[in-house]
Please model this.
Amino acid sequence: MLGCTYESLAFFRITVGILLTLELILRFRFLHAFYSEEGTLPLRLVRPKVDDLFKKVCLHCRFEELWQTQVLLIIQVILAVMHTLGIQTKVSSILSWYLYLSLTLRNTWMSYILDRYFHYMLFYSMFLPLGERWTLFSAKIPKKHGLIISPATIAFKMLVIWIYVDAGWGKLMDPLKGWSYYADPLPALDTYARHTVTAQYMYALLGPPGLRVMTPIVVYIELLAAPLALLGAYMGSSAIVYTAVSLICSLHVGIALTLRNSSLLSLVACTAWCLFLPIGAPAVSSRSTKMSTRRMLGTLLSIAMIGSMVVGNVWLETISQACDQSVKHIWSTLLHNRWNVFAGAEEYVTWEIAPGMLQDGSIVDVWGRHDDVNWNLPGGGAPCTATARPGRWRSFPYLAGLEGEDGDVLWRYLCQEWDRENDADLLTGRKLLRYNFFMLQADVLPNMGFSATRKRLIKSYECVPTEMFGTSLNDQTDRETNDDATEGEARDEL
Model:
């Protein structure tokens, strides 16, 4: 029940390595915006806010030049490829885990549940024999047979159980009963299955009644998949194990197809189930059951480190103080282990628009990075948060509460980005003078319907002092929008 075959561990290593490589390569496009001194969070603003332990652990907090961060990311990619190929898996696991933690600490604004998955999978990889099968040099490694059971296999399987119990229980206990058959007015799946073309086809095929039936099924799959997989392992039934893993992975594939920006997260979530797969012959090990001194010391070290992580998880979620969970310390990033996501039905959809005025008087969408401002639901009726800026840009609108230099650096980046990408220093009239950043919302209604759009002013920012230009952006954007809300109402709502 709590062991793994060497083949399943190898499959886990390969899938984690491939997805980690992909994630790190995708991270290059965000380095300038979120990890450089010219970006939204320079180190001069980070260092005064964190403690000495944070500074020592965060290697990325010691380098200010963009090329240095790029070199560190290249090293991470090389380690991820080594991990995939099975080259020095112990070393690649340790360094990959540490560097990923350091990169997350460099900008905790950009930390997502995806990062939490990688954090824990790489942590437990340090204590697993991942290089016994399917490696680049597998012919040179004497094969070990049977199952491997260790503190890491036990803790990892318990972690998977916790992930889905926490997520399923959060849905089950939703005060609004959004994940129940009797959800009022709409069940959760009816509100989420709208964001992509695939989701719209699924909506058309199943209809509201079908989605209402499927909504509570999702909850019970989350709650029962891991116990079912363990039961199958206990009974020696591969069919039961594969059924449980297929059910939960089908759930994640559905998420990937119906929600934007969730494909990589869904694949990583499926990867965690590799350790449950009964791949290979689960024969009785031919090795002696007598434990060598070296192996015993390794086991004791694993127990100490894994035990410390588990105790830390419990401490953070139970008796730690609010200050312990602030960005000043590393504890939230290192020990956070809550997984209750999508806990309720989606009451409304949101997207962002930032109409800005250029030097020649024209109005452009700074957020969407194009010359036309469109206030309608994006995606042909399938809206989603930050449609114009996917990936880690999704955190940007929720940083509106930053004040002082932190806020100024954040919002000024959009000015500098527009001018840089549009050659404002060379082309007459293309310089961005100011912009308004709006959060737009539409309520989710039955039968794939949405309410009228309403806007909320999040930030009004001047890239160039007001006295240097005369036309009011507020006047022009109020004429452009087809929204009924006035600018004054938007400010009152804010």
Summary: The beta strands are 4-5, 147-148, 348-353, 355-358, 363-365, 432-445, 449-450, 454-462.
